[in-house]
Amino acid sequence: MPSACDSLIDDIEDMVSFSDPTPHERQLARKSIIPRSRKKKEVLINEELQADSVIPGTQKIWMKTWGCSHNSSDGEYMAGQLAASGYKMTEADLWLLNSCTVKNPAEDHFRNSIKKAQEQQKKVVVAGCVPQAQPRMDYLKGLSIIGVSLYVCVCVHKLIRNVGHSVRLLGQKKDGGRRLGGARLDLPKIRRNPLIEIISINTGCLNACTYCKTKHARGDLASYPIEELVERARQSFQEGVCEIWLTSEDTGAYGRDIGTDLPTLLWQLVEVIPEGAMLRVGMTNPPYILEHLEEMAKILNHPRVYAFLHVPVQSASDSVLMDMKREYCIDDFKRVVDFLKERVPGITIATDIICGFPGETEEDFQETVDLVKCYRFPSLFINQFYPRPGTPAAKMEQVPAHVKKQRTKKLSHLFHSYNPYDHKVGERQHVLVTEESFDAQYYVAHNKFYEQVLVPQRAEFKGKMIEVDIYEAGKHFLRGRPVEDSKPFSPSIAAPLQKGEVSGLMQSAVYHTNSICFHSFSSTPTQHTH
C-alpha cells in the first residue's frame, strides 16, 4: 500500500568573477527570487573553472538523490542550477550522486552506485553528506566532490574538460567569520513535485549526539534570516506551489544563532500562505521546542498549518538517552507530546526509535516498548542501530546483532498491532491533493492532521482542496470518496510549473527538458535526527 570537482575551494561563488557570464545572461531572463541581503565577494579563483567552459546545452547529466527532505531540497537546487546553466538532466555518461550518511544501508547504496557507474565507464561527481563528512574514503578517491552547501555545476565543467582530475568543493559559507545557512535561497531549482516547495530554514544543529554522522557533514547551527525565508515562500506560491515543507536537522533550534526563534518565523510565514495552501513543520528535537509549546500549539491550530509534528524520542530510557547525549529526559518528551495533544486536538505526533543502541539493556528496551503502548504513535520510524564510522557510539560496546534484530522485530510487531485511523471512518474531511500513489492508482491527499488520504485519480483534483467522506482506514492511510456537488478549491495563485521546469527563471526563457531524469530516494528521518 502506498505511503504517501584535488584542489580545495572555500566558496562556490568565489569561482565566478563579475565579468563572467551567468545563468541569467545565458537564459536572457533569469528571474531573481529574493533580494540578497548579504553582500558576497565574488573572486575568480581558477580560470579553468569558468562557468562557460562548456557550451551550454551540449552536455547531459543523470542525477540521483538519497535521504531526508533536506537532502531532497539540496538535490532540487543542484538539478535546477545545472538545467539553468544549459545541461540536460537525462540518461547520460555523467552521474551526479547526492548522498545520505544517516545509516549504513544508505551509504552502501551510494557506494554501489559509484561502482556501477565506474563499471559502465561513466564519469562521476558525488555530493551530499557522505563526501562532506568523509572526503578521504577510499572509494571516493579520484572523484569530484560538491559539499553540502555548494550546489553548482562548475565542478562538472572541470570534470568534463579534465577527465582523470578531481576538484573538491567542501568549504562552508561565511560572512565576517560567521557561518551562513547553506546555499542562497534564490538559486534556480527543479522541484521533484511542482506543487511542493521544500525550504531548508537552517543547516546543522546545536547537539552532539554520539551516534550522528550528519553532524560531521552539516556542522553547527546556521539559520537563514526570516525575510529570506518568507520571500522564498512567497515566490514559491507565485509559481503555483500549494504546499510548503520546512526542513532542517532541527527546526526547533531555528534562529538561536541569529537572535530569533521558530514561532516568530512561522507567524510571518502564515501571513503569505494563500487560502487552502498548507505548511508542514519539519522535525524538531524536544530540548528546543519545550520553551515554545504555547506558541507552537497556536500555530499548529492555524487553518493553513498541518497539525503535525515530528519529534524523535529515539529511546524511552533516560540511561540510553544520556549515552546518546540527547540533552533531554523521557519526561521532557512526554511533556511535549501531552501538551500538544491537549492543546491541538487530533494532532499527529510522529517519532523515531533506535533499537539496540550500545549499552541498551532489556529493561531499557522495555521502557521504549511501554512508551509505544501508551501513545500508540500513528507514525513511527523504527530503526536498528547502525554504528557510523567516526562517531563516539561506534567505539562503545555494541549490542549483539541478533539482539538488535530481535528488538527491532518486536517493536515493529507492536506498531503493526494497532490501527490508528479506524475511528476516522465516517468523517467528512477537507484534503489537499498533491501527489500520486506509488502504484499510480490513486492521488494522495492530506487532511489537517497530515494523514494520507487516497482519492480517485481525477485530473481536476490535482493541486486542489477537495471535500471527501472517509469510507476505509488502513494502517498508513485513509480512503476518501469525493462529496457530490462539492467543487474542488484551488489554493494556487498561479499555474504550477511543469515537471522539470526550472524555478526562478522568467516564463519567456524557462529551461525545460522533456526527458528529465531526476531520482530521489527519501529515507525515513531517523538517526540523523540529533
TrEMBL record:
<dbReference type="InterPro" id="IPR058240">
    <property type="entry name" value="rSAM_sf"/>
</dbReference>
<dbReference type="GO" id="GO:0035598">
    <property type="term" value="F:tRNA (N(6)-L-threonylcarbamoyladenosine(37)-C(2))-methylthiotransferase activity"/>
</dbReference>
<dbReference type="InterPro" id="IPR020612">
    <property type="entry name" value="Methylthiotransferase_CS"/>
</dbReference>
<feature type="domain" description="Radical SAM core">
    <location>
        <begin position="191"/>
        <end position="422"/>
    </location>
</feature>
<keyword id="KW-0411">Iron-sulfur</keyword>
<comment type="function">
    <text>Catalyzes the methylthiolation of N6-threonylcarbamoyladenosine (t(6)A), leading to the formation of 2-methylthio-N6-threonylcarbamoyladenosine (ms(2)t(6)A) at position 37 in tRNAs that read codons beginning with adenine.</text>
</comment>
<dbReference type="InterPro" id="IPR007197">
    <property type="entry name" value="rSAM"/>
</dbReference>
<keyword id="KW-0004">4Fe-4S</keyword>
<dbReference type="Pfam" id="PF00919">
    <property type="entry name" value="UPF0004"/>
</dbReference>
<dbReference type="InterPro" id="IPR038135">
    <property type="entry name" value="Methylthiotransferase_N_sf"/>
</dbReference>
<dbReference type="GO" id="GO:0051539">
    <property type="term" value="F:4 iron, 4 sulfur cluster binding"/>
</dbReference>
<dbReference type="Pfam" id="PF04055">
    <property type="entry name" value="Radical_SAM"/>
</dbReference>
<dbReference type="InterPro" id="IPR005839">
    <property type="entry name" value="Methylthiotransferase"/>
</dbReference>
<dbReference type="InterPro" id="IPR013848">
    <property type="entry name" value="Methylthiotransferase_N"/>
</dbReference>
<keyword id="KW-0256">Endoplasmic reticulum</keyword>
<feature type="domain" description="MTTase N-terminal">
    <location>
        <begin position="59"/>
        <end position="168"/>
    </location>
</feature>
<keyword id="KW-0819">tRNA processing</keyword>
<dbReference type="InterPro" id="IPR006638">
    <property type="entry name" value="Elp3/MiaA/NifB-like_rSAM"/>
</dbReference>
<dbReference type="InterPro" id="IPR006466">
    <property type="entry name" value="MiaB-like_arc_euk"/>
</dbReference>
<keyword id="KW-0479">Metal-binding</keyword>
<protein>
    <recommendedName>
        <fullName>tRNA-t(6)A37 methylthiotransferase</fullName>
        <ecNumber>2.8.4.5</ecNumber>
    </recommendedName>
</protein>
<keyword id="KW-0408">Iron</keyword>
<dbReference type="InterPro" id="IPR023404">
    <property type="entry name" value="rSAM_horseshoe"/>
</dbReference>
<keyword id="KW-0808">Transferase</keyword>
<dbReference type="InterPro" id="IPR002792">
    <property type="entry name" value="TRAM_dom"/>
</dbReference>
<feature type="domain" description="TRAM">
    <location>
        <begin position="422"/>
        <end position="484"/>
    </location>
</feature>
<dbReference type="GO" id="GO:0005789">
    <property type="term" value="C:endoplasmic reticulum membrane"/>
</dbReference>
<keyword id="KW-0949">S-adenosyl-L-methionine</keyword>
<comment type="similarity">
    <text>Belongs to the methylthiotransferase family. CDKAL1 subfamily.</text>
</comment>
<dbReference type="GO" id="GO:0046872">
    <property type="term" value="F:metal ion binding"/>
</dbReference>
